[in-house]
Amino acid sequence: MRYDWIWSCPYDDEGWKVWMEDQIGKVALQTVWEQKVKDCTRCELSKTRTQIVYGIGQTEQPDFLFIGEGPGADEDRLGEPFVGAAGKLFDKILAALKLEREDIYICNVVSCRPPGNRDPKHAELVACAPVWTSQIVAVRPRMIIALGKIAGNVLLGTRAEAVAKMRKKVHAWNKIPLQVTYHPAGMLRNENYKQPAWEDLLNAQGYVAQIKAKALDSGPLFGGE
Ligand code: URA
Fold first, then answer.
1. What's the angle, vertex CA 168, arms to CA 165 and CA 171, rounded to 5?
2. For residues 72 and 75, what is the distance between their CA atoms, to the nearest angstrom?
3. Does the residue 139 lie in any domain?
4. How many domains does the chain fold into?
5. How far is residue 28's CA from residue 20's CA, in Å, rounded to a whole number?
């Protein structure tokens, strides 16, 4: 399954997988950061970055984990995901969904800025896969929202599917529901992406509401009489 592709990537070592299985939430993220990420030189982006942009937000089973492509110039300078022009639109979308940044988790498929905002190279995506994977495993979101073509393809283990196709159904990443939608930067370039993205996000909210309702509905914790 896709998971194997990620964990067997050439830059990975089994250690990541083994200890992630026992740890969740903030503690796990801090451990990953300290032991695996903060001095990372797994790919050439480490040579040109100002700083690594690690994920931020709610680390204890948020409803949504949003995953983007990679830091731009503002993120590289400030060390936080989605703080540039696309980030401002992202904040507006969150507000319209009645969500705060603190309610969700945000990360990227590469944690260092590709120079000149070029697309991440395959080797860079492979090198960084354990970083976002371990974040998802630690945070355990109810649903993953992949923003844009690159994040969508990386999570689906495909290469060049269009967002228009990927967004048509709720997929799963290791049993976690996964919705792909347009990237806010794409929406800034093309207004026509806004409406379908909005529909995707409303559907995603409905999907998570149903998951939560089912969990509540699954009967009393301690059986009847
Ligand atoms: N675009 C992304 O994909 N991620 C960021 O963090 C910022 C812009």
1. 100
2. 5
3. yes
4. 1
5. 7
Measured CA angle at 21 (ends 2, 39), to 5 deg: 85
**What letter represents residue 202's amino acid?**
L
Q: What is the domain extent for residue 62?
A: 4-213
Asked whether the beta carbons of 107 and 146 are under 8 A apart, the reply is: no
Kind and range of the H or E run holding 205? helix 194-217
The Cβ of residue 64 has, within 10 Å, a number of other Cβ atoms equal to 24
Q: Is residue 164 part of a domain?
A: yes
User: Is 80 exceeded by the pLDDT of residue 214?
Assistant: yes
Q: Label the pairing between strands 143-147 and 176-181.
A: parallel
Distance (angstroms) between ligand 1 centre and the Cα of 84 equals: 8
Which atom from ligand 1 is nearest to the alpha carbon of 86?
8
Q: What is the pLDDT of residues 77-121, one digit of tens each?
A: 999 999 999 999 999 999 999 999 999 999 999 999 999 999 999
Which residues does ligand 1 sit against, CB inside 6 Å? 68-72, 75, 81-82, 84, 86-87, 108, 185
CATH of the domain at 50: 3.40.470.10
What is the Cα–Cα distance from 70 to 30, expressed in whole angstroms?
Answer: 20
Distance CA 81, CA 72 (A): 9
Distance 123 CA to ligand 1 centre (A): 19
218: in domain: no
Q: Whole-model pTM? A: 0.90
Is position 225 within any domain?
no
At position 25, the amino acid (one-letter code) is G
